[in-house]
Structure formats: C-alpha cells, structure tokens
Write a structure and sequence with these properties.
The chain is an alpha/beta fold. The chain is 38% helix and 15% strand. It contains twelve helices and eight strands. Strands 1, 2, 3, 4, 5, 6, 7 and 8 form an eight-stranded mixed beta sheet that branches. α4 links the parallel β1 and β2. α3 packs parallel to α4. The model has no long low-confidence stretch (mean pLDDT 86).
Length: 270
C-alpha cells in the first residue's frame, strides 16, 4: 500500500505497531514509514519476523486451549492489529460458535478493515472499538463492549505483543491491574512480551538505539519484570517462558528461544 492509497485521516509518515506487525507477517496494509521502522528493528534483531510468526502461533494455541479446555466464551483482544489468518473469533467460533469477542486497537486503518473482524458466526458476536490500552476505564465502560460482553461472566483478556509498547512512564502494571480487576473470577489473562533476557549489555544498547530510530516507543522486559503482571494469579502450566514453549505442536518458525525473544503466559484470575 502506498501513500496515494492511504485513507483520509491516516498519517502515513508516522509508523504504527499494527502496520509494522502486518509487514512482518507478510501483509500489505503498511506504508513506507512502517517498513522503514520494521527494518530499523531488524538491523538489531534480524530474526524479528520469526518472533512475529511464533507470537501468532502462540495466540492460536492459547485461544484453542481457552475455548476447548477452559470453557471460555468471551474474549477481549486489546491491540488486535490488522486482520490476518486466524483471528481470535475465527479460532474460538470454530470450536464454540456462540463465542463473543471484542477487538480493540488505536490505528484508524484497523478500523477500516474491521469488517473482517466483525464477520461473526450468527450464534456469537464480535465488536470493534477504536481505543488505546492506556485508557482502560474508557475501554471497560464503552457501550459496544458492555453490549457484547457480560463482565459478570469469565472473559479472556488478551494482551498479545502489546505491553512492550508501554514505557515505564505509561505505568503498564497499573494498566493491566485495572483491566484484570474489572473481570470476574474464572477469567484469564493472556500476555506475550518482548524480552531482554538473552541480550548482552552491548546487544541491549544496540536494541535501544534501533527502537529509538524506529520511531515507536518500546520497552523490553526481563522474565522477572514480565512475571509481575501475573502477581496473585494462577499461572497455567507450563508457566511463564518463551512463547515457543507454551504447549508446542512440533513445527516452529525458529528452533531457538533467543531468536524469538518473546515471553508468554496464560493465567487464571482466582
């Protein structure tokens, strides 16, 4: 997609995480600024595309588990990104057609493609909100969300490859606490997050510089820092670790966790 095709109201000179992720997944809904940002990150982390693919595979496995084994029928997907193969509602409704999903993103171009996210099975329902994860109260009080999800019944809160875009100034732990605090017992928190675990001091400096040049704020976190998001929750086996290690199914995009550098976990809210 080039700038001449950009829908009104979209600033194509500034990169956006959703469009950059779309580029890494082989999509076409991205612009030159997004591709330049993606390549800046790839200079410091050449296997970033593998990381994106493994992250997407983790999402598929988790939604399958939550629907088929945990009995979840409601999902709140924050930072949904551009529609691609295997959206949350497609995976969940293939197993339980009555499943309900609310997607949230802050990129106007995702809204343009939201019709793909709204092709729910007739037994279920989907909705899309244009909002920012940094505004949890606005999301939780949104009429579309309240009309789609019953917050007195368990909900899977999906924060897949989202929280690393919140710097410490954004108070990410408070954001997650507010979101999960609004959900009843039996709900689940699902998160993935880019990690600094495998980086040397020199690697980390190079990564920080690459993220600065990419034009998108980004905060790598260690396993200890990531684990704080799950304080007080019942972490589902196999626990907190590489997204590659969460109930793997054999094939993977890359054989080494350090090449993916993405942590993931699923936890039940007691």
């Amino acid at each position: 997609m080039d700038s001449e095709q950009a829908p009104p109201g979209i600033d194509v000179t500034k990169p956006h995480p959703a469009r950059r992720y779309d580029y890494w997944l082989g999509g076409k809904d991205n612009f030159e600024a997004d591709r330049e940002s993606a390549e800046a990150v790839a200079e410091a982390f050449p296997s970033v595309q593998f990381s994106a693919l493994e992250n997407r595979a983790f999402l598929r496995r988790v939604v399958t588990y939550l629907t088929a084994e945990a009995g979840i029928r409601q999902f709140l997907d924050l930072g949904a990104g551009l529609p691609t193969a295997g959206n949350v509602h497609e995976i969940a409704q293939d197993i339980a057609p009555e499943s309900r999903i609310v997607y949230v993103d802050n990129d106007p171009i995702v809204l343009i493609h939201a019709r793909t996210l709204l092709n729910s099975r007739p037994e279920g329902r989907t909705a899309y909100l244009e909002a920012d994860v940094r505004e949890p109260e606005r999301i939780l009080a949104h009429p579309e969300l309240l009309d789609t999800l019953d917050l007195t019944r368990p909900v899977a809160l999906m924060l897949v490859a989202v929280m690393h875009f919140l710097t410490d100034d954004d108070r990410p732990y408070e954001v997650v606490e507010r979101l999960r605090g609004a959900l009843p017992s039996g709900s689940y928190l699902v998160m993935t997050h880019a990690t600094s675990d495998h980086l040397t001091v020199e690697d980390l400096a190079q990564s920080d510089e690459a993220n600065r040049r990419s034009g998108i704020p980004f905060r790598l976190r260690s396993t200890a820092e990531f684990s704080r998001f799950f304080t007080g929750l019942e972490v589902v086996p196999p626990g907190i670790g590489s997204v590659m290690s969460w109930r793997p199914e054999g094939w993977r995009a890359h054989p080494r966790p350090e090449a993916v550098s993405m942590l993931g976990a699923v936890a039940r809210i007691p």
